[in-house]
Amino acid sequence: MNHRLFHTLVLGSSVLLGGSGGVACMARVAEAAPATSPPDEAVSVDPPSDSPPPSTANSIDASAPRDAAKDVVTVDARACEAGWPTTKGMVCTSDGGPELCCHRQDEAPVCCPRPAPEGSP
Amino acid sequence: MSCQALSSLSANGRWGGAMTQRTLPPADEEIAAMPDEQRTVLARLWWSQAATERRVAQSFAVVERALSTLEADAGIVATAGRAIDDEHRHAALCQAMASRYLGAEAAPAPELPFSHPRHPAARSEDVRAALYVVGQCVFNETFASAYLAACLDAATHPLARAALRELLSDEIDHARVGWAFLATMPGALRADITDWLLPLGIANLREWRALTLPAPGADLERHGVPARGRIEEALVSALRGVVVPGVAHAGLRSAPFAQWAENGART
Ligand SMILES: [Fe+2]
Ligand SMILES: [Fe+2]
C-alpha cells in the first residue's frame, strides 16, 4: 500500500499542530512529469521506501460477517444521510448538453427504504 | 438558487488577498482556437465548480466552529478558519477559469443552497462536532484531493494544470485538518467515531459518485477532465490507500469499514 497521498495527507498533517495556521502551505502536488516542472513544484508525494504506511491487516476482524457493509448500506439510517457537499462541478448531461445540476439538498438517497403507504401491512 | 457577486478575498488569507499563489499562465490564443462547443463545456464545468467551491466555504464555517467547541489544537482550528477564505479563492479561481474558456466575463456563479449532515444519531454534541470534522475533512477533502490529483494527471494544458495545482495544494491542507484532528482527538470520542466510519464513508463517497461529467474525450482530458472511470478509480484508491490505512494509523480500527472498502465500497 503506497498511495501517493498517504504521506502527504495523513503523516503530513502534523505540520498543522501547534501553529497559527499562518504558515505557507507546504503541500506539494505529485506531477506526472516532474522533469518538466520547476524543482519547487515537482516534489513527489510518494512515501519513502523506509517508512511504509501501516498495513490495514490489523484492522480487519476475520470473524466479522463479510456482508456487514451491505447491511449498513441498506438498513443503517446513518448511511442514508446525505454526505457533505462536494467541491466540484455538478454538471449533468442532458439532451441539450452539459448543464449545471440542481443541488441534492432534498433528494432522498437511493439506499433509504421508502415509507410504506399508510394502512399497508 | 440566486446569482450574486463572489465574496471579496481576505487580506489575511493564504496569499494576502490574492486569488492564487502564482499568476495563471496566458493561454487565450489557444483557447480561442478551440471549437466553440468544447470551450462552452469547459466554461460550464468551471462555472459550476465556482458554485460548489463557494458553498464549501460554509462547510468550513461549520467545521471551524466544531473544532473550537472541541478545543482542538490551535493550528488545526486556524487552518480550518483559513479554509473558509481558501474556498472563496477557489470559487474566484473557478469563475476566472470559466471566463477564460468563455472568452468573456462569465456571470457570477449561482449561490447554491447549503445543507450539511446533522447526524441525529450522534450520542452527544461532542461526537456530532467530531463527526463534522471527520466527514468534511478526513473523507470529503481526501476525496477532493484524490479527484483533483486525477484531474491534474489527465491535464496537459498549462492553464488547466496551473489552476488544478492551486486547488489541489489547498485541498491537501484541508484534508490535513481532519487527519491532524484524528491524531489528536480526545480518547472519549474514539469509540464513537470508529463506529461511524462506515456510514460516514458510504454517505460521503455517494456524494462524489453522484456527479456525472461530460462524455470523456482526449480534448477534455487535456483540460483536466478525466474519464469517469479514472475518477472512480481515484476515489476508491484513495479510500483504500489513504482513508482506511489513515484511520488505522490513528488507532481507529473498524473491520466493517475496511471490508466495505476492500469489497467494492458499495454506496
Ligand atoms: Fe476547494
Ligand atoms: Fe477544500
Shape of chain B: globular
Tally of DSSP β-strands of chain A: 2
Termini gap of chain A = 50 Å
Provide mean pLDDT of chain A, rounded: 54
Provide a descriptive summary of the structure in words.
- The complex is a heterodimer of chains A (121) and B (267).
- Chain A is 16% helix and 7% strand.
- Chain A is of the alpha+beta class and 121 residues long.
- Among the domains of chain A are: 4-38, no CATH class; 88-115, no CATH class.
- In chain A, strand 1 and strand 2 (97-100) form a beta hairpin.
- Residues 21-66 and 102-121 of chain A have low confidence and may be disordered.
- Chain B is mainly alpha-helical and 267 residues long.
- In chain B, strands 1-2 form a two-stranded antiparallel ribbon.
- The interface between A and B is large, with 73 and 109 residues.
- The structure holds fe (ii) ion (2 copies).
- The site of one fe (ii) ion (FE2) has 7 residues of chain B, from helix 3, helix 4 and helix 5.
Structure described in brief:
Chain A is an alpha+beta fold and 121 residues long.
